[in-house]
Amino acid sequence: MKFLVPTDFSIQSEVAVMYASRLATELESELLLLYVLFTDEASNTAQLKSTETIEKELTQKSSRKFAELIRKIRDYAGVNLQVSFAIRKGFPIEKTIEAHAKENDTELIVMGTRGGGPIRRLFMGSTAASVIGYSSLPVITVPENAEFKGLKHIVYPTNMWTLEEELDALVPLARIFSSTIHVLHVVSPDSAEKPDKEKVLQSLIEKTNYEKIIFHISKNSKVVDGIDAYMELINADLLAMFTHELTFLEKLFGKSLTRQMVFHSKTPMLTFIREV
After folding, report:
1. For residue 256, what is the DSSP state?
2. Which domains does the chain have, with CATH numbers?
3. If you average pLDDT over each of 27-31, 156-160, 240-244, 266-270, which comes out highest?
4. Is the pLDDT of residue 247 over 60?
5. N or C: which end of the chain has fewer CB within 10 A?
């Protein structure tokens, strides 16, 4: 198994790299680091130097940063972890990351959701959301200060529409870590919806052949707040979400819950693409 970890060498993106390195060690996976090169990174000096010269200098500088980063990874996750890096020119970032992932047969993308400074924080968050929206692979987004300490508790929010098929995608990961999957259904306080919790739970256990499942209904007028409160209550290690390609109206009004959680969540989030 191979993990692709895009980085911009900021302190916050390093958090995602270290998270991925621990996860990769646990799963005996290979770590592929990627830096996407922009020629306009040195736009202030572009008039004084050729584009080729600028790219060469940026590549050399990035290579030195990768050497230092890999040394830190070895110190943090052990010398046995297989790590490599690539520097790739391309735009937009999400398409470049997707292309690199496919060309290298990676199965998972791990990236940070925050960079350093207000502008970079917004940029990194929007980049993570764009990668999630474009990627055909599962993506783990890692917030500030997160650290991999196992996956004891995975929270999976659901609207109950495609519950069983989504659990089928999540259970294999849970088995590896013997995780408890908390299936969370958030409804409004005045909702008349009353699923039979025991019946739903027994059905899920039988159909997935996995017993470490909890089914919980949370009443909250705001879905994001309901998810947050439950994750804090159980000290969740991972939030699992399923997303789909945005429709025109969702692009216009920003209605994707998954994309909201990219900016909002304080817990690492695993996102699977779901066809609609």
Report:
1. -
2. 2-142 (3.40.50.620), 153-265 (3.40.50.620)
3. 27-31
4. no
5. C
With vertex at residue 110, the alpha carbon angle to CA 148 and CA 274, rounded to the nearest 5 degrees, is 115
> How far apart are alpha carbons 251 and 253 in whole angstroms?
6
pTM of the model: 0.87
Whole-number Å distance between alpha carbons of 147 and 131: 21
How many other C-beta atoms can be found within 10 angstroms of the C-beta atom of residue 256?
20
Look at the block and give the residue holding tokens 């398409």: 95
Question: Tokens at residue 112, please?
Answer: 């940070």
pLDDT tens-digit map of 177-216: 999 999 999 999 998 888 899 999 999 999 999 999 999 9
Pairing of strands 139-142, 269-273: antiparallel
Beta strand segments in 103-148, E: 108-112, 139-142
Question: Mapping DSSP to helix (H, G, I), strand (E, B) and coil, where does residue 275 land?
Answer: coil
